[in-house]
Task: structure prediction
Amino acid sequence: MQTLRRYFSLSLLAALSAIVLPASADQGITDQKIILGQSAAFTGPAAQLGIQLHAGAKAYFDQVNAAGGVHGRKIEIIKMDDKYEADLAAANTKKLIENEDVFALFGYVGTPTSNAALPIFTQAKVPFFAPFTGAQSLREPLNRQIFNIRGSYFDETEHLVERLVRTGLKNIAVFYQNDAYGKAGLAGVERALKKMNVQMVETATVERNSTDVSKAIAKILPKRPDVIIQISAYSSCAAYIKGMRKEGYNGQFYNVSFVGSQALADALGTDGPGTVISQVVPFPWKASTPVVNEYTKVMQKAGIKDLNFSSLEGFIAAKVFVEGLRRAGRSLSREKLISSLETINTSNYDVGGFDVNFSPTSHNGSKYVDMTVITKEGKFLN
Result:
């Protein structure tokens, strides 16, 4: 009888355990939802980057949620403002992981902010998906937690420099933000120029979240370069272009995608036409590109009329992330998500005109780079 009682007791405990066990051993998951965290600039001189990236991602997540979520779970994203400051990004990352119990981090904006979060999410083994930066520090060496959707600054700057040199424009200067982002972009330009056997004319800097460009103007203006490549955010880049034009400079300005294309065009106004920007996602107004057509419809349904490169990037990032969740299955964990994302490539998944290739040895999904120019109407020409 005692043996029989013990058997039934153990059976009851096993049954109860099956009922009360959480849906996953990892935090940020319940039977009903998956919680993501995003630290980005939502106020300050770089605010439009965070606002636009978040808008595109949330529009996609909301559509997925409206259709029942992923394996019955709705996706919730908690956003925190870091004002594009590294210290705030680090503090936010700790809060998101330790206090908000997020499952993964998504859509951080910037190199210095992402670098500040790097040791925190690495130690906690929390996935860090689609940061809005092309820095090598988030690409090499391979970090299993990091997945990049966009091309690198090396990809962008090499494309820019090759285009310039092949058209005979070899007198090139660089205006860059004096931080990890600006230096990463500068390194990319230097690398590309060396490859083309061309010497850089001059460099000048601006501090992060500052529009004081007077010293940078004074340093580069006398050299009268054919082209100035800018590696900074839209507010300082706009201030620099306006200042240089006021001083009579008639050369060209080239920017990498992080600048925030629409925000730059808006800030420049009548000084915008002719400004060139490299892009790491397809043209947001080209409906013949399947993912752009999908993005346009989803954004319109969400009541968002203003389309732009940054929100399209957020949309694509959310779409690929959801595919990773689907592949991971109902018994979701961080490790399963990572392993599932590593199976996504162009042979088995079509984003819709934008190639993403992950593998166990590379989490750098894309090398896509395109060129655009600001028109007289403040729009973009592809």
